[in-house]
Each structure stands twice: as C-alpha cells, then as structure tokens.
Design goal:
Elements lengths: L8 E8 L3 H11 L4 H9 L5 H19 L7 E10 L3 E6 L5 E6 L2 E9 L34 H23 L4 H9 L12 H5 L1
Antiparallel strand pairs: 1-5, 2-5, 3-4
Length: 203
C-alpha cells in the first residue's frame, strides 16, 4: 500500500495457531519502534508469540527492500495488530460418558512499516550518466620490411656462403687419412699350423 504522502509496506500472516490475546501482548511492545529495536525486543521476549511475530516483521522488511527499494534499518513499525481467526472446536472424553469442549483459536498477525522521518528511503544509489570509456592507445608496431644496414647484410650473406661449401665438401670427402692408416695398420690374425694326426703319419 502506497500513497503520495507516506509510503507504507505491510506483511500479514493468517491462520496462525495461537490465541490472539497472547499475541497482542507482544505486538504492544514493538508498535512505534524502529526495525532494529523491534528485532531486539522480539529476540529477548520469552513468549512463543514473539517467534511468529518476528517472522512477519522479517517478511515486511523483505517486501520493503525488494519491492519498494527501501532501507530496512531506516523503517519504523507504524502499526502491529492481531485479529481473531476461526476457532476449531474439538471434544475430549471425560468420566461417566461426558465430554469436554476443546477450543483451538487462530489469529491473523499484521505488521506495517513506514520510513522514518529524515531517513534515506532508497537503498540503490543514483546511477550516473553513462560515459563512454576512452579507447586505449594502440601499441606501435615496427614495420616488418625494415631494411637492415648494408654492412650487416653483407656480413650475414658472406657467413652463409662460407658455411655452405664446407658442409658440402665434408659430406663428399671420405674418412680422414689418419683413420685409414689406423685401419690399415691393424695386424691380421695368424693361422695356426694344422696338427698332424696319427693317420697322416702312417701314410
């Protein structure tokens, strides 16, 4: 619910299995307080109704932040009240064929929040005008066809020419003469004389 004068956010929990009289005892302590104070009061309240009311308060704060862009810490509990819900009737057997009535009441818990006076309502910061990013300077690329000095070019070509014939000559030439001499000087194995057998002697 929102108006031009004040912006109000609320959250409702219906059919809570609790007596409305017991829930009203807790809502009286948080009405008119800020959200941080109300959370502190509910955290230190020992009544069971405080747990249910704290859930409703948390839901109202989430609605304000998600749907209306408000800051939860700057809100005030403008109203917190409990309405009666339907009562469930049950029976319990008693002595001598009698019965006793059991009533299970329910309630509807409502919590309303409004922005505090002089507080910043919107959590989202105003977006600045979009400024196009400045393009980064492109790195200077040296030309690949840059001519080398004449002296350096000549020395490179001469070194290449000198290296090429040496490799060709080495591939054509055979083994070195020293290696050939070493191979030739190796002595040949001597043949052992054949022993004469008895048969050759008889002949």
């Amino acid at each position: 619910m929102s108006t031009l004068e004040t912006q109000e956010v609320r959250a409702v929990a219906k059919w809570v299995h609790m007596s409305p009289r017991k829930a009203r005892l807790v809502t009286r302590h948080i009405s008119g307080r800020s959200v941080p104070e109300a959370r502190t009061v509910l955290a230190f309240t020992q009544r069971a109704a405080a747990r249910e009311i704290e859930k409703v308060l948390r839901s109202a704060v989430a609605n304000a932040e998600a749907n209306h862009g408000l800051n939860g810490d700057n809100l005030v509990v403008s109203a917190a009240y409990v309405d009666e819900g339907p009562v469930m009737k049950r029976w319990r057997a008693r002595a001598r064929g009698r019965v006793a009535r059991i009533k299970k009441p329910t309630c509807h818990i409502t919590v309303k929040l409004t922005p505090a006076e002089g507080a910043i309502t919107h959590t989202h910061a105003p977006t600045a005008a979009a400024v196009p990013p400045t393009p980064a300077p492109e790195p200077e690329i040296a030309p690949a066809d840059e001519a080398q000095p004449e002296g350096e070019a000549q020395t490179v070509e001469e070194s290449e020419r000198e290296a090429e014939p040496e490799t060709d000559e080495e591939s054509k030439q055979g083994p070195e003469p020293e290696a050939q001499a070493e191979v030739a000087e190796e002595p040949k194995p001597k043949r052992t004389p054949r022993k004469k057998t008895d048969e050759t002697e008889d002949e």
